Amino acid sequence: MKRNQMIMAAMFFVGCGFTMNVAMAQQNGISRTDLVQEAISIKGHEAVQVRVDFEPGAVSIKHSHPGEEVAYVLEGSLEYTLEGRQPITLEAGEALFIPSGVAHLAKNVGGTKASELATYIVETGKTLVEPAK
């Protein structure tokens, strides 16, 4: 019985943390849905795939990842600004490669919701999104 109570308490705290993260993301008009997180054949790396939805005008924080990202725009228009490069606007059906460790941000520049499918090959155990300094 004690073991079940501990498991339920742990699930509650994990759920609360997830809810707070979702609420914070939705507060700035961005929500993320985790789809896949699996080890791959490259030792110490994993594949992660998420859907990111942007309300009109929403802008991500400037951040980087501990590995490569391929961003595929599912709907709408997203402007990506990668450190050291001019901004690029992608429409639904277009993709962008973001190298490991490169600080970047994304902004919905359209008048409707925009969404991307982000696929990462990253180091296992590292924080997926690192705010840029």
Automatic annotation (TrEMBL):
Cupin type-2 domain residues: 51-115
InterPro entries in UniProt: Cupin_2, RmlC-like_jellyroll, RmlC_Cupin_sf
Alphabetical UniProt keywords: Signal
Pfam family, one: Cupin_2
Signal peptide limits: 1-25
UniProt-listed Gene3D superfamilies: Jelly Rolls
CDD domains: cupin_BLL4011-like (cd02235)
Protein name: Cupin domain-containing protein
